[in-house]
Amino acid sequence: MGSIQFRDLQRQYKYIKDKIDEKVFNVIESSNFISGPEVKELEYTLASYVGVKNCITCANGTDAITIALMAYGIGKGDAVFVPDFTFFSSGECPATIGATPIFVDVLPSTYNIDPVFLQKAVEKVISEGQLKPRAVVAVDLFGQPFDVSSIRAICDKYDLLLLEDAAQGFGGSYTDSAGTTYMACSLGDIATTSFFPAKPLGCYGDGGAIFTNDDKIALLCQSIAVHGKNTQDLENPDAKYNNIRLGMNSRLDTIQAAIIQAKFQVFKDEELDKVNHVAKKYTKLLSDIDGLKLPVVKMGMSSAWAQYTIQLPIGANRFEIRKKLKRDGIPTNIYYMKPMHLQKAFEGTRSSQANCPTTEELCETVLCLPIHPYLEDSEIKMICDKLKATLQ
Ligand SMILES: Cc1ncc(COP(=O)(O)O)c(C=O)c1O
To answer: pLDDT tens for residues 66-78?
Structure first.
């Protein structure tokens, strides 16, 4: 048993070192560092795994959300509904392109956006008459897909774009009532993910991708990701110097694409099962602690377990618990400490007007335990024993 890492990328590297080294070496030898053939190959691999026609890679998961929203022309005067309990990007992206994020409380069981509160928030925006409801950013928080059928129904009712923010969800899935399974990144009108190193499928730097079945939107995303180049004219080698709209410089570089390719086989064939084993083991060993709430995976959902997030009993001293665990060599994190609507960046704006008591309670009580596919049973047991001891 070595030291416990929150997400152990070194163990993963040791396990697949030969593959990674070979792929990275090949890119260096070819010196095709930007838009090398590995990028298109990866896009093809990921699109077919997810079951969506188009995958457009880009520089990170934040850009992926921004590009997707830009492709639909979302901007000033538009309301974009976002869970209050998420990473900042989910709300930052609509705001940076001039739209107004409207924060919605989450379900206490799954931590994902609450359909009842979403509907209320949409109705409120309509009745205020200031903003046009345009889109929902539905986050697959901690790896579990959002409540697909209920959120889809609301989006259909109010004609809203459903953007799945699967930065943490890649590899998860949803099985509908007819028994058909859909992979995360295929659950919205458009979906985005992140390849940040600690994500379920991470690269060795920053990376992201957009998934869509809509060919026109795919071309727009490709264009926006590369300075608004003319993607209608790809036969022309100079098309990238023909800038027909404003965009950004957001490419996944070839080395990162090669690294993701090298990791992908083991991710789908082994890591997803292994990380689900870790989560089950935690749940089994922690289920007898009074007042501790464990993550719930709903029927039909499969999680990629980006995080294993527990809720401490109300009144427990989270700071002290973390300190003791750290002393025992157990790293922990708090995702997230602050509701989105209370972030200073939104102070004084319409986005700060939200009533989200579940999020506020979660921010006070959650604790994320180490989780990754290479965590051993003996380590999980040790973490659970130490956690129990700190709670006594
Ligand atoms: C829910 C969510 N959305 C978006 C992002 C942004 O991804 P990136 O860090 O690659 O920009 C993250 C990253 O942590 C995330 O967790």
So the answer is: 999 999 999 999 9
Is the Cα torsion angle 323, 325, 327, 329 positive or negative in sign?
negative
The 10 Å Cβ neighbour count of residue 313 is 12
Q: Is the CB of 196 under 6 A from ligand 1?
A: yes
Cα(199) to centroid of ligand 1, in Å?
A: 9
Answer yes or no: is pLDDT of 62 > 70.
yes
Model pLDDT, residue 392? 81
Task: Using the atom order of ligand 1, give the atom closest to the CA of residue 64.
Answer: 11
- Which residues lie below 8 Å from residue 106, measured CB to CB, with a gap of 6+? 83, 84, 85, 112, 113, 114, 141, 356, 358, 359, 362
* Domain residue limits, the chain: 9-263, 269-391
> What's the helix, strand, coil split of the chain in %, to 5?
45, 15, 40
Domain 9-263 shares a fold with domain 269-391: no
Q: Is 86 in the pocket of ligand 1 (CB under 6 A)?
A: yes
Please report, for residues 194, 214, 225, the alpha-carbon distance to residue 211 in angstroms, rounded to integers and kept in the order given. Answer: 12, 9, 13
Better-scored residue on pLDDT, 234 or 272:
272
Which protein residue's CA is at the shortest distance from atom 7 of ligand 1? 61
Would you state the CATH architecture of domain 269-391? Alpha-Beta Complex (3.90)
pLDDT in tens, 339-384: 999 999 999 999 999 999 999 999 999 999 999 999 999 999 999 9
Q: Which residues pair with 181 in a beta bridge?
A: 175
Average model confidence (pLDDT) across the chain = 96
Q: Is the pLDDT of residue 225 over 70?
A: yes
Inter-residue contact 294 to 108 (CB < 8 Å): no
Taking the centre of ligand 1 as the mean of its atom positions, its distance from the CA of residue 172, in whole angstroms, is: 16
Q: Residue 229 pairs with which residues in a beta bridge?
A: 243
Domain 9-263, CATH 3.40.50.10490 — does that match? no
